[in-house]
From TrEMBL:
Keyword ATP-binding listed: no
Keyword Oxidoreductase attached: no
Gene3D superfamilies xref list: 2.40.160.20
Protein name per the record: Outer membrane beta-barrel protein
Signal peptide: 1-20
Domain Outer membrane protein beta-barrel: 7-214
Species assigned in the record: Parasulfitobacter algicola
InterPro entries documented for this protein: Beta-barrel_OMP, OM_autotransptr_brl_dom, OMP/PagP_B-barrel
UniProt keyword annotations, A-Z: Signal
NCBIfam families: autotrans_barl
Amino acid sequence: MSFRMPLAALMFLAASPALAELEISVYTGVQTAPHSSVEGNNNGVPFDFGVEWEGRSGDAPPYYGLRLTWWQNEKWGYGVEMNHAKVYADDDTLRDSGFTDLEFTDGLNLVTINGFRRWQQDDSRWTPYVGAGVGLAIPHVDIQVGSNDTFGYQITGPAVVAMAGVNYEITDTWSVFGEYKGSFSSNTVDLDGGGDLQTDIVTNALNLGLSFNF
């Protein structure tokens, strides 16, 4: 699955003269994930165990996000976002579970529709904001257990996100921001050799980003 078509659609909408105030943002940061439980069956053989997740934000492909926001006025905005989060099962989990690979590392890929509230002040370049969104998890699945090897993109379930941060205006068009961003996704993966795997994943991230406003 490619994200080129939806991203192209976002750029087309952003170029529309009918839209007054738009903000295109890109960010990276440090992302982690607490442990969770994994259950399912491998070609009819059940499994159920806990997994310790690692984020490895700087490893290729790195953690990042893309966001497009339509600000309706000085307070409220809405938009769309693709968050390329990552999770890897640690070595102890793999050894104890019998899995060779268990990771969503070419993106946990949370695609969401977001709403935002900001607090602008005429005499300050600093603008605090909060936001939340709902959407889908579309991870690149890399799971191998025994001879069952699953590799590729899947739509695995619903996702919710929340963020809080502050934006600093450099010029009328450019700004930088820092934020906390959290997510929850409920994932059901179809295993190619038969069976499935279910896990709920929470991520926590500290992001630094750059925005272009027009």
